[in-house]
Amino acid sequence: MNCMRNLPILLPCLVALITIVFATEHSPDKPTIERLSNGEARVTFQAAADHFYRIDASTDLKTWLPLATVEGEDTIEYLDSEATYAGSRHYRAVALESADILTGDYFSTTDGIVTIHPIDHASFVMEWKGKWIYNDPVGGSTRYRAFPKADLILVGHQHGDHFNAGTLSGVMKDDIVTVTPDDVFGRMSTSLKSLKSATSLKSATSTLGNGDTLDAIGLKVEAVPACNDRHPKGRDNGYVLTIGGMRFYMSGDTGATDEMRTLTNIDVAFVCMNLPFTMTIDEAASAVRDFKPTFMYPYHHRGSDIPMFKELVGKDVGVAVRIREWY
Q1: Rounded to a whole number, what is the largest CA-CA distance in the chain?
Q2: What is the pLDDT of residues 177-209, one digit of tens each?
Q3: Which CATH number among 2.40.160, 3.40.630, 2.60.40, 2.20.200 corresponds to the domain 9-96?
Q4: Nearest-angstrom CA–CA distance, 215 and 243
Q5: What are phi and psi of 78, to 5 degrees?
Q6: Nearby residues of 37 by Cβ (< 8 Å), 6 or more positions away
Q7: pTM to 2 decimals?
């Protein structure tokens, strides 16, 4: 449970039109904000060790945009890649009381907070109301030992950077729901195929084809096409999760398909870009400009020019590109 104190301290910054508010019992010390040459902002402060903070931004000190949950260390440095879209930007850090909190970007839905923590490449973890969602977990279960085991696992397709049977076996709860295409299910071990939910005693794996939907752990999963020259149409999945009125899109390995370009009402999008397996930054930027997610994360982008991708998306379509560490 988070606790925001009612004694805010307004601290002006030397960078014009950017200020910072700290409203916490464990107020961070020595805050600085630096506007970078590319328009981004670097927020740095001293914080109490072993405490967690939520960082929010505002243009008017009234409406606050959730940014990220960070863990206190000697020095916390947060790079706000969205500052390029705002002429004026204010920040606040809110102390959280709980000691067991997932760090990463967070979103306030109508039914609780969703936090997203990148792991590597196409893999990330989401937490919502104590439920844990793993997207394309690979690389061995030890990579996930800092997190509770998964309530829901999404697997997009057969390639090793998206599907690894050993990793799946090591990160599942007894009451797991795993969502895969038919092709991935066919490649699972006999033990994974025969695994049943501990409570429902039904198969722990649900296979979805493009256009199919599933209600699981209180949210909706929709499988959408993910295809290009290396990924045959109809074999693989991207996914759209609907959580508390927000729609989260994971592209999987795909090109800039007509189905992607015509997606609607996407709040948060994870879009791939790297050759030869997915698409160029130009193709990805063109598609993003078409379906216009509110927030967009480049992922699965090893070797791609992500700053140039952000420039290609531009500032005129209302898409905020968030650049995070995936490698």
Answers
A1: 62
A2: 999 999 999 999 998 998 987 766 678 999 999
A3: 2.60.40
A4: 11
A5: -120, 125
A6: none
A7: 0.90
